[in-house]
């Protein structure tokens, strides 16, 4: 990813460029997913809610694009190496129902937030501030949580199906995340630095898994 | 549309509720259209540009929703009567190419801006301020204009096809707009009040047509 740097006025490490690049493409890709899922909404207000979530992703995308541009990096160059892994995740987890869409939005948003929270310690103040802003809870998670909780109440078979779905989402996300880290030396170094340990990557993924499990239990999908 | 009013704290006429309702559903529908068209973008930056345009529509939608809510009107109720006409317009003008998408985004945004500008005179200050904000040029038109202008330079057959396309867009938009006005007494009264004339509706549509023609000439599609 060093070729993505071109006369930037501020210093930026390749690990950070890659981190922001994955995050940016994740936002663009989430926009796509949510916009498409909005069409399957059973109500007009559900449709508007998902469309608004999608719109929020593009607001974040704009912040990330500006951050990179100020450092002489084109967001397209930063995203490109990671597109196929993010696309592979989306393709392998295309929701078939409205509730699957909501569970996916909820799971992925929180997983991304956890991941970046774990890495916050190794980022400089400005980058950390950006990441925190981009991953701040916009209240959309609460919408998904409320809808899902209402739908699964007293519906054991549905709850079981969605619990299975949430485990599959986690598995596919971690699989693609591993590919991403394997292909970016800078990102791997960042994680090792953040966790202070050579076994840091495996430990990080275990931690994400535990947080996911706890969250699913709270949602009634544990 | 009077049933959409339910204990609002501020006065609002049915014509204004209908006007804001059409505008709100137009935004939600444009979000859908732009999000879908973003997938056909030939470049990653074009994809992000259209996704950002789509996101901006939802920002406007949120403003309209809040405006109605403050007056005791649910945005869903205000939009519902006009959904099928807006949907009919979108269905009859689904773009088949990236350039058709851009021409459509450009034509529709400007047509809507013209329409609301013509009606601004009959709106109270607060409503007028809202409409102006929602229809303010966000620089997205400039993007579409630039891309289209570059594409048609020295490409007469392409230019002719897109000129035909822009005429079809105008025709379909005015057809559906006529249905909308025919079904909303409040909206018809608003237009007559705004143009001060019983023949106001026909005159308004003629004016929109003229402004469209001028704009297409400026774009090289006249």
Automatic annotation (TrEMBL), chains A, B:
Pfam families found in the cross-reference section: MiaE_2 (PF13794)
Ferritin-like domain residues: 14-193
Source organism superkingdom: Bacteria
Protein known as: Ferritin-like domain-containing protein
Annotated source species: Saccharomonospora xinjiangensis XJ-54
